[in-house]
Amino acid sequence: MVKDMKNDSNKARIYHLAFDLWNTTAYSLERDPLIDLIDILRFSSSLEIADIQALIQTREFISSRPFAEICDLLEVPYCYKHEGKFRDLIESERKGFKLFQDTLPVLKTAREIGLTVSLVSNLWNFCLPVVQEVFFSQFQFDHVFFSFDIGSIKPSITFFKAIESVGISLSETLVVGDSLHSDILGAINAGSKAIWLKRDGSCSSPVVSEPFYSDRYLGSITNLYQALEVVQKDLIN
Questions:
Q1: Spatial CA neighbour of 174 closest among 158, 197, 152
Q2: pLDDT band (50, 70, 90) for residue 36
Q3: Considering only CA atoms, which of 124, 176, 130, 132 is closest in space to residue 149?
Q4: Which keywords does this Swiss-Prot/TrEMBL entry list (predicted)?
Q5: pLDDT tens across 73-96, in order?
Q6: Domain count of the chain?
Q7: Following DSSP, what letter does each residue of 208-228 receive, concatenated?
Q8: Cβ atoms < 10 Å from Cβ of 50
Q9: Per-residue pLDDT tens for 191-230?
Q10: How far is 217 from 192, CA to CA, in rounded Å?
Q11: pTM for the whole thing?
Q12: Structural domain span for residue 215
């Protein structure tokens, strides 16, 4: 059941679906690998996890020594022993990468009913090979928006504005994601509609300020099939 769903027929219709990656369409490690990276580096810094995320996930590491690049970027002394642990972390993330059971059926149905479908993700590019192998081999997105390509991370308006760069109207876009801060508020602030995916079934209402309670927030769901229900109601009304 879709919770707190709002519908206003006077608003722009939904023609484009933009899905988050981690914990929305796919999953891997139990916690953010950036936290494990900080543990590996064993450094104390004034940088918050969000600062480190902004530094690492907005840059494409293409050299043969990405760990050394990271150390330079974060101004941390390089250690070859730590590099081995970093490689193990990346390998664990790749091996653990899986799609949720509802992901492919929902994406394919969205395409069948005439919607364009995009993937929007804060991603360090080390995991890109397995995303391509496991995900893109089974579904071809109309557009893919990765933070390391855009140079900005969600919830930045700059990130979501990249959707408009391919001729898609944000007012006609529905963003589906699990993060209230990055996906939902980020999308809403940029001018898109949004549905909050809470796979744990939580029904608690967040206490946040406008524009969260605007017509752009279409409620919370517990699986991706419910996002399609919202879109199909929108197309019928």
A1: 197
A2: very high
A3: 124
A4: Hydrolase, Plasmid
A5: 998 889 898 999 999 999 999 999
A6: 2
A7: --TTTTSTTEEEEESSTHHHH
A8: 12
A9: 999 999 999 876 555 544 554 557 899 989 999 999 999 9
A10: 9
A11: 0.90
A12: 16-28+98-236
